[in-house]
Task: inverse folding
């Protein structure tokens, strides 16, 4: 027999051909499984290629194993040369092929496991992220009153893009601080660290007419070289606006090489409502919600969202927005019944339970209506599992974690939210509050400087900056310079700044006595803060009868407000206790503040819980319960709080305690 014939016979005898066929079948199954499963696992794009390479490399290994070894009842042995016509044991080739394939599959799974487990979720996101994108507010080319429609188009595109994995999108709040700005794309990108900017224009032919046409012209710009990567013109009937928004988001994703998974594609193309009048009401509600810090705008947003769901009860987005607005109204004490908010939330859950906005609304309801911090955290965490860079969920969950005593974890999330949303005053302010609670005053000072840079006309930002120097170093001079900075640079009356802080009134009030005497309610605007500021100042300047008048005015307003329910009491109970203390109503003052603290204990965090615990010590001092006050101060110094040794040394509130041995011992501690 010729050598080629002998070789062919030997290959058959050793079942090498069978191994090759079975191995190919196993490899094909692995490729199909990888093609289906790996995209869902969101592994890097090169992993499927690695799977193919490993299977190809495994083929010669399997062939060599088939040639060299055989499986016998005594185990695996080297194949011995035998005479012509002899055959390997039945099934030997199949077993070797399957074993090789199984080993390869184990290797692939092991590699994938290492890739996924060694990388934290946030690291994975950053590794896959194709860049950061800022969606600037699209310019309204129609009449000014149609601006809300252009904003609505911008918001819808932003939401669709933010939901895509692999793309970092700056928040709406940060984007809108550049509305009407004369800065170039490169200047904006440099300030934020954005890689790409999407801008555009919107114009409706006949505003408010559902049969009108709308023209949307988007442009995608690469910041590094100011190059226009893509642009287009969409001229459609208004009813097609949802499709246009989706197409723009998908085109941007393709231009930035972001892979769209099918669930993301379906979500992007979903139409929120078929009723354009309902959509108009929703957009107008969003416009009012953007100014919800004014009560009248908050109430207006709820009315507009309510109109939207009346027109289309199946409009899930409007139901979530209505629930959130009604919860805010309830939390502010403008309503004593959260049932309408609950009903809107129930409708949203029934319609779109997996919608991110629905999950966010659930979190807000748990936090602000039921005061259940743990349940609220679960809702926001659920959002973060699908959208790790959702600024609202990061910020809210971070605040909640600090309130649950998980300070470091909470601050990390708040820092991340402020990083992603760098011009959002709520996000940045939350970070400053958290740093203050942790007594990280140097970092808090940098945050307050940042807040002033964002909005140098807001007096409260100078208030917290001045207070920070007193908490940090007991430095009156530095606090005074903050007031001078506000007065000299933007012309803010120092008395207005001081009026937001009883601490500043006590420490610096007498230096600004004339201005504080001239302070009016029209200037201060907040009724309770105004009455309390006037009462504190009158008391410090030896006018107890006038102080009592202001305390009683505050009491009258506060008793009505806290009667609206537990939530209002939790927010305002300490202010009411202060008014009672100023009127000499000791028992009512102590009972009120202790009840408020019980509702929001110290572990409830950097802002409310710690503030109430501090107010408890203050009320004890004001009503003469000095031992109880020192007990509370000792406790506050042992946990994260706003009480510091430098503060105790300079705050006149604690003058009645200065001869007490226990208080003196506190002052001797290291700051």
Result:
């Amino acid at each position: 027999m010729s050598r080629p014939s002998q070789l062919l016979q030997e290959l058959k005898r050793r079942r090498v051909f069978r191994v090759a066929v079975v191995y190919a079948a196993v490899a094909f199954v692995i490729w199909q499984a990888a093609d289906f499963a790996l995209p869902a696992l969101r592994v890097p794009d090169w992993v499927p290629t690695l799977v193919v390479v490993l299977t190809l490399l495994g083929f010669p290994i399997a062939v060599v194993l088939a040639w060299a070894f055989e499986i016998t009842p005594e185990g695996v042995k080297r194949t011995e040369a035998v005479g012509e016509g002899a055959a390997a044991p039945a099934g030997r080739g199949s077993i070797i092929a399957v074993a090789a394939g199984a080993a390869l599959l184990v290797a692939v799974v092991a590699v994938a496991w290492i890739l996924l487990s060694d990388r934290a979720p946030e690291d994975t996101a950053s590794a896959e992220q194709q860049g950061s994108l800022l969606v600037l507010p699209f310019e309204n080319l129609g009449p000014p009153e149609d601006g809300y429609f252009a904003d609505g188009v911008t918001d819808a595109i932003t939401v669709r893009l933010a939901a895509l994995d692999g793309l970092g999108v700056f928040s709406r709040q940060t984007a809108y601080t550049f509305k009407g700005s004369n800065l170039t794309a490169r200047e904006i990108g440099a300030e934020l660290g954005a890689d790409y900017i999407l801008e555009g224009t919107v114009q409706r032919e006949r505003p408010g007419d559902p049969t009108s046409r709308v023209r949307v012209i988007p442009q995608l710009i690469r910041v590094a070289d100011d190059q226009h990567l893509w642009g287009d013109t969409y001229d459609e009937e208004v009813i097609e606006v949802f499709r246009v928004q989706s197409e723009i988001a998908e085109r941007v994703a393709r231009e930035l090489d972001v892979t769209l998974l099918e669930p993301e594609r379906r979500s992007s193309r979903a139409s929120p409502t078929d009723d354009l009048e309902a959509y108009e009401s929703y957009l107008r509600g969003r416009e009012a919600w953007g100014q919800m810090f004014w009560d009248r705008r908050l109430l207006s947003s709820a009315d507009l969202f309510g109109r939207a769901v009346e027109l289309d009860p199946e409009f899930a987005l409007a139901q979530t927005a209505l629930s959130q607005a009604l919860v805010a109204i309830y939390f502010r004490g403008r309503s004593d019944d959260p049932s309408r908010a609950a009903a809107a939330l129930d409708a949203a859950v029934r319609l779109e339970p997996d919608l991110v906005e629905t999950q966010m609304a659930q979190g807000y309801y748990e936090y602000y209506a039921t005061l259940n911090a743990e349940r609220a955290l679960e809702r926001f965490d659920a959002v973060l599992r699908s959208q790790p860079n959702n600024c609202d969920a990061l910020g809210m969950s971070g605040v909640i974690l600090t309130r649950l005593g998980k300070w470091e974890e909470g601050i990390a999330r708040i820092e991340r939210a402020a990083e992603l949303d760098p011009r959002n005053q709520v996000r940045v302010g939350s970070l400053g509050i958290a740093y203050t609670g942790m007594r990280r005053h140097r970092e808090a000072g940098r945050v307050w400087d940042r807040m002033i840079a964002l909005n140098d006309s807001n007096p409260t930002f100078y208030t917290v900056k001045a207070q920070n120097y007193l908490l940090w170093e007991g430095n009156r001079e530095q606090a005074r310079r903050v007031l001078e900075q506000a007065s000299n640079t933007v012309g803010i009356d120092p008395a207005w700044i001081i009026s937001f802080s009883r601490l500043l009134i006590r420490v610096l009030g007498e230096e600004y006595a004339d201005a504080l005497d001239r302070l009016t309610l029209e200037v201060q605007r907040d009724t309770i803060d105004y009455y309390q500021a006037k009462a504190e100042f009158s008391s410090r300047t030896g006018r107890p009868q006038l102080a009592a008048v202001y305390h009683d005015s505050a009491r009258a307003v506060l008793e009505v407000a806290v009667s609206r329910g537990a939530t209002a009491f939790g927010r305002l109970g300490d202010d009411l206790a202060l008014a009672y203390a100023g009127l000499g109503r000791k028992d009512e003052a102590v009972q009120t503040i202790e009840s408020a603290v019980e509702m929001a204990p110290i572990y409830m965090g950097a802002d409310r819980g710690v503030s109430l615990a501090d107010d408890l010590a203050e009320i004890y001092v004001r009503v003469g319960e000095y031992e109880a006050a020192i007990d509370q101060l000792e406790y506050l110094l042992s946990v994260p709080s706003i009480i510091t040794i430098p503060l105790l040394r300079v705050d006149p509130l604690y003058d009645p305690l200065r001869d007490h041995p226990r208080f003196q011992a506190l002052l001797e501690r290291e700051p």
User: Anything to note?
Assistant: Residues 127-269 form a domain with the Rossmann fold fold (CATH 3.40.50.10610). The first helix runs from residue 3 to 13. The chain is about 65% helix and 5% strand. The CA atoms of residues 288 and 297 lie 5 Å apart.
